[in-house]
UniProtKB/TrEMBL annotation:
UniProt xrefs under InterPro entries: Ribosomal_uS14 (IPR001209), Ribosomal_uS14_bac/plastid (IPR023036), Ribosomal_uS14_CS (IPR018271)
Gene3D superfamilies for the chain: 1.10.287.1480
Keyword Ribonucleoprotein: yes
Annotated source species: Pikeienuella piscinae
PANTHER family xrefs: 30S RIBOSOMAL PROTEIN S14, SMALL RIBOSOMAL SUBUNIT PROTEIN US14M
One Pfam family in the UniProt entry: Ribosomal_S14
Gene of this entry: rpsN
UniProt similarity note: Belongs to the universal ribosomal protein uS14 family.
UniProt keywords, alphabetically: Ribonucleoprotein, Ribosomal protein, RNA-binding, rRNA-binding
Summary of subunit composition and partner proteins: Part of the 30S ribosomal subunit. Contacts proteins S3 and S10.
Name of the protein in its database record: Small ribosomal subunit protein uS14
GO molecular function terms listed in the Swiss-Prot or TrEMBL record: rRNA binding; structural constituent of ribosome
Function: Binds 16S rRNA, required for the assembly of 30S particles and may also be responsible for determining the conformation of the 16S rRNA at the A site.
Amino acid sequence: MAKKSMIAREEKRQELVDKYAAKRAALKATARDESLSMEERFKARLKLAELPRNSSATRLHNRCKVTGRPKAYYRKLQMSRIALRELASMGQVPGMVKSSW
């Protein structure tokens, strides 16, 4: 089980990403627009740099919904390999059976 503080930190980052997503996208579009003057594009870059660092989507890390583990994460199931194995062994995952030969 992951530390509760790490899970809380990740949730806080997700809230910031959601809050600033539209503003960040607009500033990035302005900064990339070749038809604008260099000064306007530079001002957009400065405003983008003033936003909180944790509002960037690249700062997010996928975590298991069951245990909070950050590594060995399956996107499709939104859980780690360890949690998946435990749930599959107990018969909780439909269609998944333990292999034996």
